[in-house]
């Protein structure tokens, strides 16, 4: 298979500069409107349960947020290899467009239409965010070596800040004078502008193309589920995600 490599080795990475810092800011904004938006799903959960999807149980409604969370991290299995092969812009910009489009489609859903909400928000928004999540972190390796972990921490904080900002905004919009239709459209417009800026700022540094040996996905997956350290890690993260996501959805 063909794989792209960063423009410089670890010793030659700039660890700074205008392009590098713009990429950090762009990735931060992607997390702010990506996983940060998912962190605010509790507002939607409460609104759907009490006002918009009253015929559905809270458990059924929570599937919307659960599917989003699955796609955000699960699509890394696809986005990672695509990023390595030089398709950063295809994946990243495609995800931004899909999330924005899906949010505008969500604003058109009428009360009681659970499956339309599930399709627009659960699948549309979830896949869009998933396409941006891994590339927004991976692109930092094209610019930073010594400071890479620090930059990844800064970018990851965008999701936390986004969770705070979007929660406040959605509470005011959905439960205020705007209502669901106008409120979601305002939120979608804000997200679209931020993601547009993110796409302008983020810059990968692909330069050379080299042939690499293909990875057998089946063998790699089998190895992950047969080695004890890997199994313990998976189990630990399963418990962590359960404890981490439950309060955001229900409290």
TrEMBL record:
UniProt keywords, alphabetically: Membrane, Transmembrane, Transmembrane helix
**In which broad location class does this protein mainly occur, judging by the first location in its UniProt entry?**
membrane
A GO cellular component annotation here is:
membrane
Membrane topology is: Multi-pass membrane protein
Q: Which residues cross the membrane?
A: 61-80, 87-106, 118-140, 152-170, 182-203, 224-246
Task: Please give one Pfam family short name.
Answer: MFS_1
Give its localization: Membrane
The terms under GO molecular function for this entry are: transmembrane transporter activity
What's the domain of life for this entry?
Eukaryota
Sequence similarity:
Belongs to the major facilitator superfamily. Monocarboxylate porter (TC 2.A.1.13) family.
Tell me what this protein is called: MFS general substrate transporter
Q: Which organism is it from?
A: Paxillus rubicundulus Ve08.2h10
Taxonomic path? Eukaryota, Fungi, Dikarya, Basidiomycota, Agaricomycotina
């Amino acid at each position: 298979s063909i794989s792209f490599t960063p423009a410089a080795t670890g010793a030659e990475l700039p660890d700074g500069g205008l392009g590098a810092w713009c990429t950090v800011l762009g990735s931060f904004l992607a997390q702010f409107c990506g996983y940060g938006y998912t962190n605010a799903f509790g507002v939607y959960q409460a609104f759907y349960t009490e006002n918009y999807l009253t015929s559905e149980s809270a458990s059924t409604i929570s599937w919307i947020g659960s599917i989003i969370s699955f796609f955000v991290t699960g699509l890394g299995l696809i986005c990672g290899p695509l990023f390595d092969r030089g398709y950063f812009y295809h994946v990243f910009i495609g995800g931004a467009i899909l999330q924005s489009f899906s949010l505008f489609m969500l604003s058109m859903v009428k009360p009681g239409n659970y499956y339309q909400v599930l399709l627009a928000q659960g699948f549309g928004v979830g896949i869009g965010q998933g396409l941006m999540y891994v590339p927004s972190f991976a692109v930092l390796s094209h610019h930073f070596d010594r400071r890479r972990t620090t930059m990844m921490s800064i970018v990851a904080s965008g999701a936390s800040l986004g969770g705070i900002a979007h929660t406040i905004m959605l509470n005011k919009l959905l439960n205020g004078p705007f209502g669901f239709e106008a409120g979601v459209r305002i939120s979608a417009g804000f997200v679209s502008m931020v993601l547009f800026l993110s796409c302008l700022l983020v810059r990968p540094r692909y330069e050379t193309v080299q042939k690499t040996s293909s990875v057998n996905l089946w063998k790699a997956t089998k190895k992950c589920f047969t080695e004890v350290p890997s199994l313990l890690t998976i189990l630990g993260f399963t418990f962590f995600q359960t404890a981490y996501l439950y309060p955001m959805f229900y409290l």
